[in-house]
């Protein structure tokens, strides 16, 4: 069996950035992706336009194209018909527009943000900045709220909040994309603090809670909590 650092993900967090203290943090799993050497995609529908819904269906669809799904994770919030609440760009094509409206729920807890991948690399940015960065974007997904912005935890988070869920989010550190899922129920402040204080990310974006899913066969994680909208996939 290969060492987890060489396999492309950090199960033992001591591997992450060479900080041994992180090995004592048992509550999170981090998937680290180098977009220069690994293929990160966003997926919503199959060739016939039907929502893919689950990592299992995504895996079968990719297998039919001669590709192997190594990891998958839900990639942003979605409407009851599984369409994205906000921006979604797949293979350079905008499938859903940027959403700067006001509303209720976590997506609209401003500031929210966009994860994007372009020729210049990966970024997490506040949503209103996206139009100035849109040229050449290959992948983008909008969600909210921003967990961390410029090294500061979202001001609307309560450290004592009783709202606890399995949660997942995305950040960029030293050019690598970090997909993070909590393995126990956490509140938003705790989740944001993990990105800021342990992973040392200056910007991090919340993806969702309750439905949060990580597909990672190497970790024997193949299940999912609900039908999903957009999904990240790392393919080979």
Mean pLDDT: 89
Low-pLDDT residue spans: 1-24
N-to-C span: 19 Å
Strand order of the largest sheet: 1-2-13-12-14-10-11
Secondary structure: number of strands: 16
Global structural class: mainly beta
The helical percent reads: under 10%
Biggest β-sheet description: 7 strands, antiparallel
How do the SSEs run, as a string of H and E?
A: EEEHEEEEEEEEEEHEEE
Computed over alpha carbons, the radius of gyration is 16 Å
Question: Given the structure, what is the number of helices?
Answer: 2
Query: What fraction of residues sit in β-strands?
Result: 25-35%
Number of separate domains = 1
Shape: globular
Provide an overview of this structure.
The protein is mainly β and 236 residues long.
Brief digest:
The protein is mainly beta and 236 residues long. It has helices at 55-63, 188-198; strands at 9-10, 28-33, 39-43, 69-74, 88-90, 93-96, 113-118, 121-126, 137-143, 146-149, 152-153, 167-173, 176-182, 204-209, 214-215, 231-235.
Tell me the layout of helices and strands.
Layout: E1 9-10, E2 28-33, E3 39-43, H1 55-63, E4 69-74, E5 88-90, E6 93-96, E7 113-118, E8 121-126, E9 137-143, E10 146-149, E11 152-153, E12 167-173, E13 176-182, H2 188-198, E14 204-209, E15 214-215, E16 231-235
């Amino acid at each position: 069996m290969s060492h987890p650092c060489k396999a492309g993900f950090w199960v033992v967090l001591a591997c992450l950035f060479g900080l041994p203290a992180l090995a004592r943090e048992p509550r999170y799993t981090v998937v680290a992706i180098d977009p220069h050497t690994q293929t990160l995609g966003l997926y919503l529908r199959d060739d016939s336009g039907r929502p893919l819904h689950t990592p299992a269906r995504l895996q079968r669809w990719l297998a039919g194209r001669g590709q192997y799904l190594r990891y998958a994770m839900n990639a942003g919030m979605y409407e009851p018909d599984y369409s994205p609440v906000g921006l979604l760009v797949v293979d350079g094509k905008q499938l859903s527009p940027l959403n700067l409206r006001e509303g209720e729920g976590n997506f609209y807890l401003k500031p929210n943000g966009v994860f994007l991948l372009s020729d210049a690399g990966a970024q997490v940015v506040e949503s209103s900045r996206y139009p100035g960065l849109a040229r050449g974007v290959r992948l983008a997904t909008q969600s909210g709220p921003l967990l961390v912005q410029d090294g500061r935890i979202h001001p609307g988070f309560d450290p004592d909040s009783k709202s606890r869920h399995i949660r997942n989010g995305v950040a960029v550190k030293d050019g690598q994309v970090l997909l993070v899922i909590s393995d126990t129920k956490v509140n938003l402040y705790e989740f944001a603090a993990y990105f800021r204080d342990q992973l040392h990310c200056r910007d991090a974006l919340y993806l969702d809670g309750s439905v949060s899913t990580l597909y990672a066969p190497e970790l024997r994680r193949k299940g999912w909590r609900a039908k999903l909208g957009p999904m990240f996939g790392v393919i080979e």
